[in-house]
Amino acid sequence: MMKLSFFKSLNNKLFGWYIGSLIILSVFFYVGVHILAIPRGTELFFLLFFLLAIIGFAIIYNITNDLTYLTKKIKEISHENLRDRIVDIKRDDELGELATAFNNLLNRLDEAFKREQQFIGDVAHELKTPIATMRSALEVAISKDRSNDEYKKVIHDSIIETNHISSTLKNVLDLAWSETPHEQKHFVKLNLSKLTTELIDIADKLASSRLQNVRSNVSSKIYINGYEERLARGIINIIENAIKYTPPKGIITVQLSKKNDRAVLTVRDTGQGILATDIPHIFDRFYRGSTTDNVFGSGIGLSITKSIVNLHHGSIDVKSQPGKGTIFTIKLPLSEN
Ligand SMILES: Nc1ncnc2c1ncn2[C@@H]1O[C@H](COP(=O)(O)OP(=O)(O)O)[C@@H](O)[C@H]1O
Ligand SMILES: [Mg+2]
Question: What's the predicted TM-score (pTM) here?
Answer without folding.
Answer: 0.73
